[in-house]
Amino acid sequence: MKVLAAGVVPLLLVLHWKHGAGSPLPITPVNATCATRHPCHSNLMNQIRNQLAQLNGSANALFILYYTAQGEPFPNNLDKLCGPNVTDFPPFHANGTEKTRLVELYRIIAYLGASLGNITRDQKVLNPNALSLHSKLNATADIMRGLLSNVLCRLCNKYHMAHVDVAYGPDTSGKDVFQKKKLGCQLLGKYKQVIAVVAQAF
Amino acid sequence: MALFSAFQTTFLLALLSLKTYQSEVLSEPLSLAPESLEVSIDSARQCLHLKWSVHNLAYHQELKMVFQIEISRIKTSNVIWVENYSTTVKRNQVLRWSWESKLPLECAKHSVRMRGAVDDAQVPELRFWSNWTSWEEVDVQSSLGHDPLFVFPKDKLVEEGSNVTICYVSRSHQNNISCYLEGVRMHGEQLDPNVCVFHLKNVPFIRETGTNIYCKADQGDVIKGIVLFVSIFEEPKDFSCETRDLKTLNCTWAPGSDAGLLTQLSQSYTLFESFSGKKTLCKYKSWCNWQVSPDSQEMYNFTLTAENYLRKRSVHLLFNLTHRVHPMAPFNVFVKNVSATNATMTWKVHSIGNYSTLLCQIELYGEGKVIQKQNVSVKVNGKHLMKKLEPSTEYAAQVRCANANHFWKWSEWTRRNFTTAEAAPSEAPDVWRNVKSVQGHCVVTLFWKPLSKLQANGKILFYNVVLENLDRPSTLKLLSIPAPANGTELTLDRCSYQIHVTANNSVGTSPASVIAVSGDPGNKEVEEERVKGTEDGFCLSWKPQPGDVTGYVVEWCERPGDPLCDLQWKNLGPNTTSTVVSSDAFRPGVRYNFRIYGISTERIPYLLEKKTGYSQELVPSDNPQVLMSNLTSYSFTLSWKDYAAESQPGFVQGYSLYLKSKAARCLPGSEKAVLSDDSICCKYKIDNPKQKTFVVENLQPASFYEFFLTPYTSVGEGPQGAFTKVTTPDEYSHILIRIILPMIFSILLIMILCYLKSQWMKEKCYPDIPDPYKSSVLSLIKSKENPRLTIMNVKDCIPDAIEVINKQEGTRKSLTETEPTKPTYLYLLPTEKSHSGPGPCICFENFTYNQAASDSVSCGHVPVTPKAQPSQLGLLTSSENVPKALGKNYVNSLGEIPAGETNLNYVSQLASPMCGDKSSLPTNPPEPALCSEYKTQMAIPMGLASPPSITLLDEGEHDH
Fold first, then answer.
1. Which positions make up the signal peptide (chain B) (predicted)?
2. Other CB atoms within 10 A of residue A118 CB
3. Which are the contacts of A199, defined by CB distance < 8 A and separation ≥ 6?
4. What is the rounded average pLDDT for all residues in chain B?
5. Bigger pLDDT: B124 or B812?
6. Between vectors from CA B735 to CA B734 and to CA B741, what angle results, nearest 5°?
7. B178 interfaces chain A, CB cutoff of 8 Å
């Protein structure tokens, strides 16, 4: 449940906020109507592509900022500490239909958004003076929120999908500090790898 | 006896009951052993928590017991800790005890056992140990999981300088594990084949975000690590307490450094006073208030304790309350009885005890500086008289106090401003005058300098000017000039006056300043001397006057070019003969004029000397306009009489004349000089600044020169200007002019006459119908071979004769070389006599054209050689054939002329029929008029004119 309190619930509240909101929303509402809070942009796919390109463009810089801020042994042992060994990361098939790709993208961004929330929270405590890292993390999370909204709009408008089942990564709040640093590094390494493939697929 | 028996029975019963009770409680000592021992782990703090109870105690029984606890590591025989823990035990009470391990508990298996004993004085016979409990094993390694490598302790927080033990647990025996701290490998001790321990001593503080310690295996991708947080926690500094009112103590301190990521919010400060035993938890990190006890406690011993997650830090302070009094600022501060020179300051202080005295300090500020400082002892009310003040001056007075007996700190200042009263001006104004004579009157302009603040003693309201006529002493005239005027103008008659000037404020009048004006202005002519200024000003000196002189005055204008001039003066004593005049208004390049006056005993100024000079001389600002005159072949004269040397920013000492010429050497009186543009020229130096003309001599005729004249001062020459060009005239040019001009005039005159008489000239020189008698050919013929030749008369023509002219073929001679040919006449008809005179016919030939033509046909006569074929002649005689032949040749000339023969041969035509042409006689009898007729020239091709093809032109071909 900690994962919900940490990053997922605020994220979903933002995404699914409607008039009368205040009671907790189900993560995947079964009977949710396919309606969006705001009218979708006319050129959604273009916006999605741009947002993916934006994320892809900044992913490597974020990765470098992160592992540099963690100190030794991270910068010199990237393969061992920051390898993209994230077991439960949602899959992505670049050769699938647009609908499939959008659904998979939605899952990936939801997963990444939650994980990024955990990383941001941890780094504010562990590296309170790494302001550029915080700023980059926040900016990336902002873009992801917008991207998730656009993907949802697209799924809703074109494919009439009201909800997508999503999964989230492990919560780091109970981990020790070194493990937090390592998990964050692995996640960002994976993010850098995946976002390049996804951006290419759209 | 019965009573004794009863008592004995009772005693025995009681003893029996006690025995029974004792047998109930203590009959089985093993039953007081600790039971239900449980051991748990707090990994964060690396603690073992023990929990047990003693069951076999009686209800409500409470005994002091001691428990001996043994802790072994790895194996039970390896006991690493033994401790006796004493406590009071109740029945079924859960007892707790904790032990912090230096070694991370995950690194090794731990076992715990304990036993207990009664440690109560009531039952000393029961003080023996119970049996040991069984070993309780604590093995965290078994629950770690399946990772190949672990490092402990996680997120350990230690204080800087402490010792830390770190270990790793490896699941593989084969791998070599190496561990690093900040990139430096650590060397440890093998606890068992899978566990290695590292002892870090005196750990340093590296950063707030912790220190990464990691271990990695030689094989595989395994890296595991921990973060060690090191905290710095210093004791508080500058701990101090004081009181301001003897009711409250205010203690302050500077918190020591407390660096460490996880410890920032865990600080707390406690103040403890040992004499009273009171303690207070401070709300703030740097200060705390303490209520002074009403029981007249004098001595205080404070302990300030700072505490964080890891440890405590304390500082102590022992003091007497009366020695730590920081008085409140004085109040009810007033400045009273303010006169021109005195004022009294009064104030009150807060009492700090019945018998204490305060020391108060008074400071008097004038114009931002402390001018008086005084200490005064005060009980409650303070008073201080401030003397020697200046009239009409603003002052500030301030007072502060401290404990006189045991000085601790001054109170804050309390400040008051005040202004002293005015007084009459103390000094006479400094007066000077300027005297001019206008229309028989004496116009006196009086100037005075405003009194300084110290002299004025208040605000000057007006100036009184009293005019005393020295010739009529009883006549006085009073003028009142309101301030802030610094002068006035008076129109006086020729009489002598003495002028008294006084300054007045609201309190009184200043002493009078006296100056006299005589009837004679006394502006005698004094020669002006030059004086050199320096950075410090002008150093002026003058000769002492033999008579009685009451003083000297130096007068000058600070703005010489300005009509208002800004007149300045300086009063000097009678024994002074020099002074330095300096002013911020002096500017470089400005000429200042100084006048030195002596003041007679009658207070009449008279001019002694004049001085002039520059505070700093500059180079001339402009160059003179030079006029050139008297230009000859060898010299010219330059003049610059309009140049105002006095207006230059320096004394002009002379002039430099630069002369450029093609000559390599400079003329006598000049020297070579290099200009700013690196060109070389000759320089004449004119040392006399009054010389305004210069003759440049020894020049070359018909030569080009350039000159440039510039003045110079002691600093340098004037600005570089343009050179003026001049060319000396040729030596003979005047002669040429005397000849050429009249010639040109004459030619012009002739041309005008010719134009006016053009008709006459035409008739005379080139008439439309030339007069053969005036022909040059005729004259040529006459003059050469046949002087008898003359114009043929018609009657002289012999119609039956052909004149044949012999001509040598193949000779080409010019006209001038042409030998005259002898004409030969073939007489077609017998003549009566041989005609030996000149030929009867004349032809005109144009010699201007083709040489070949002139060679081949020297005349219009048909050249007929003696061998001429009759057929050819026949052709010639046939007038019908002429056009035919002409047409044929003409066609040829157009279509068949070779490229090299395209020259035209112009032949001057002779009128036909030719004289003596017999064939033409029957049809065209000769007419005298035709003989001398000119025919229009016609261009014919060379071929037509060349022999032997002979062509004649008939009249029809001429009339175009």
1. 1-27
2. 25
3. A49, A52, A53, A55, A56
4. 77
5. B124
6. 85
7. no
CB pairs under 8 A between A and B: 53
Amino acid identity of B243?
A: T
Q: How far is the C-alpha of A131 from the C-alpha of A65, rounded, in Å?
A: 10
B202: tokens are 């005196």
Amino acid at A73: P
**Which of B151, B223, B261 lies nearest to residue A77, judging by beta carbons?**
B223
Chain center to CA of B720: 29
Burial of A63: CB neighbours in 10 Å, binned 0-12, 13-18, 19+? buried
Closest CA–CA distance from residue B223 to any residue of chain A (Å): 7
CA–CA separation, B129 and B107 (whole Å) = 32
Residues in chain A, total:
202
Reduce the DSSP state of residue A44 to 3 states and report it.
helix
What does the pLDDT profile of chain A (202 residues) look like in tens digits? 444 444 444 444 334 433 333 333 334 444 456 666 667 777 888 999 999 999 999 999 999 999 999 988 899 888 888 988 888 899 999 999 999 999 999 999 999 999 999 999 989 888 888 899 999 999 999 999 999 999 998 888 888 888 888 988 888 888 888 989 999 999 999 999 999 999 999 8
User: Residue B142 has what DSSP assignment?
Assistant: G
pLDDT at position A41, please? Answer: 75
How many other β-carbons are positioned within 10 Å of the β-carbon of residue B861?
Answer: 20
- How big is the CA angle at B15 (ends B14 and B16), to the nearest 5 degrees? 90
Q: Does B182 touch chain A (CB under 8 A)?
A: yes
Which residue carries 């040059």 as its tokens? B776
Share of chain B above pLDDT 90, in %: 30
Any bridge partners for residue B579, and if so which?
A: B540
- For residue B418 the two structure tokens come to 């005040």
pTM of this structure: 0.47
Rounded Cα gap, residues B222 and B775, in angstroms: 139
pLDDT per position as a tens digit, B507-524: 999 999 999 887 665 556
Q: Which residues of B touch A83 (CB under 8 A)?
A: 221
Q: Please tell me the total number of residues recorded for chain B in this structure.
A: 960
**For range B653-678, the mean pLDDT:** 85
Nearest to B791 by CA among B846, B823, B861, B838: B838
**Do residues B52 and B60 lie in contact, with contact meaning Cβ atoms separated by under 8 Å?**
no
The count of other CB atoms within 10 Å of the CB of residue A108 is 25
Instruction: Decide: A168 and A123 in contact? Cβ < 8 Å.
Output: no
Interface residue A83 vs chain B (CB under 8 A)? yes
pLDDT attached to residue B435: 85
Query: Would you call B678 helix, strand, or coil by DSSP?
Result: coil
Find, among A98, A77, A63, the residue nearest to A195 by Cα.
Answer: A63
- The C-alpha of B215 sits at a distance from chain A's nearest C-alpha, in angstroms, of 10
Helical axes A131-159 vs A9-16, angle rounded to 10°: 50
Collapse the DSSP code of B477 into the 3-class scheme (helix H, G, I; strand E, B; otherwise coil) and give the result.
Answer: strand
Q: Which residues have CB under 8 Å from A83's CB, separation 6+?
A: A186, A189, B221
Residue B90: pLDDT band (50, 70, 90) is: confident
| Cβ atoms B185, B214 nearer than 8 A | no
Return the structure tokens found at A101.
Answer: 């790709």
- DSSP string of B92-111? TPEEEEEEE-SS-GGGS-EE
Summarize pLDDT for B370-403 with one digit per residue, the tens: 999 999 999 889 999 999 999 999 999 999 999 9
Taking the CA atoms of B646, B647, B652 and B656 in sequence, report the sign of the dihedral they define. negative
Report yes or no: A78 at the B interface, CB cutoff 8 Å. no
Residue B207 DSSP symbol: -
Q: What tokens does B499 get?
A: 């002028």
Residue A192 CB partners (closer than 8 Å, separation 6+):
A59, A60, A62, A63, A84
Chain A, nearest residue to B182 by Cα: A72
Cα separation, B299 vs B319, in Å, equals: 6
Among candidates B686, B683, B631, which has minimal Cα distance to B654? Answer: B686
